[in-house]
Design goal:
This protein has 6 helices and 30 strands. It is an alpha/beta fold and 351 residues long. The protein has a 7-stranded mixed β-sheet, sandwiched between helices. The protein has a 6-stranded parallel β-sheet with strand order 14-17-20-23-26-29.
Length: 351
């Protein structure tokens, strides 16, 4: 059995972080995001291969993921000749498949039981099964309406108040039968959400919903990217190295913490990091490999990708740094500040 990960997006909402790092491999702590999705797919013993559907900077992704060595499943790459949309990408990647295929959108983190979704799909002899998740504010999403038996009735894109009849949205996880892929035109930019799924409803094929009420997040924005780190540190999503241990200050064995530095959990400090005397690493901070934090610098709720440097007396709160960034002496950066790779923030700058 195969799985398809739709990993071709440009990650425009995460720019400038994604200018040189495709969204599927942005680090969550010190692991590429795709690793967390592959961990989910490994729940299903039948899945022997994960097909990565790529378009944006495919070589960067291949360099990081390889052929799945150490991931417990074989990885194969399919590179779109042009942007094909979610539906077109599935058709292109799955054109030769003959059995049920599990599909994940490339920006969704969840703990859904994939085996249970697959069991429902088979029990109902469905042509398609979609995972839905309830949300508190249905106005902000396209909603998916079901009947009492869990059959999909219709899709409502950004409904008005009078149109809201449910609070369930597309969670970006599907089980599909490849004999329906002929509803997607070949080599055409086609939306699974706006075109393929509605066509299944119109043709009255068996199309069912699996309602999932557990953890679910789309990491595609800066705010959600910060949030997912907090959720793991708080134990709302179980993942190493925290795995539910809240308030943990996780410090890699190879980090160098000088006397007089303060480390306040929950936080994450990776290998070969240097924290100088008088510096403070506050709650919800993530300090990537080879970062250097100078004397009396104060960091709280910020994420620093590897090889960044923070100068003496700097104060960084809620910011995100890409790789090889340099914040100078006495810099003050507040929530919402995001810097791409190799950014330089000169001494005494403020936001």
């Amino acid at each position: 059995m195969k799985a398809i990960l739709l990993a071709g997006g440009k990650g425009t909402r995460l720019r400038p972080l994604t200018v040189h790092t495709p969204k599927p491999i942005v680090p969550i702590f010190n692991r590429p995001f795709l690793y967390y999705q592959i961990d989910q797919l490994r729940q299903v013993p039948e899945i022997d291969e994960v097909i990565l559907s790529l378009n944006y900077q495919p070589r960067r992704i291949e360099e990081i993921i390889g052929e799945g060595e150490g991931l417990g499943v074989r990885v194969r790459y399919v590179v779109e000749p042009m942007p094909l949309g979610t539906g077109g990408a599935i058709r292109y990647a799955g054109d030769q498949l003959t059995e049920s295929v599990v599909v994940f959108n490339g920006d969704v983190l969840t703990q859904v039981d994939v085996n249970a979704v697959l069991a429902l799909h088979r029990e109902r002899k469905a042509k398609a099964t979609i995972v839905l998740t309830p949300v508190d504010n249905p106005r902000a999403y396209g909603l998916v309406e079901t009947d009492v038996s869990g059959n999909i009735k219709r899709f409502l894109e950004k409904p008005g108040d009078s149109e809201i009849t449910c609070n369930t949205i597309n969670a970006g996880i599907y089980v599909l039968e490849p004999d329906t892929f002929d509803r997607i035109p070949a080599n055409t930019n086609w939306s699974i959400e706006r075109s393929y799924f509605p066509s299944l409803v119109e043709r009255a094929v068996t199309f069912v919903a699996y309602i999932y009420r557990g953890y679910w997040i789309d990491i595609g924005t800066r705010q959600k990217y910060l949030q997912v780190h907090r959720d793991i540190m708080d134990g709302r999503y179980l993942a190493p190295p925290f795995s539910g241990a809240s308030a943990l200050a996780w410090v890699a064995p190879g980090a160098r913490i000088e006397d007089g530095a303060r480390i306040e959990g929950p936080c994450f400090i990776d290998e070969d990091v240097t924290i100088k005397s008088g510096a403070r690493i506050g709650p919800y901070s993530v300090i990537g490999r080879h970062c250097h934090i100078e004397e009396r610098a104060d960091i709280e709720g910020a994420i620093l990708w590897p090889n960044s440097r923070v100068g003496a007396d700097a104060k960084i709160s809620g910011a995100i740094f890409g790789r090889h960034c340099h914040a100078g002496r006495s810099v003050t950066l507040g929530d919402g500040a995001v810097f791409g790779d190799k950014s330089v923030i000169t001494d005494y700058s403020t936001t």
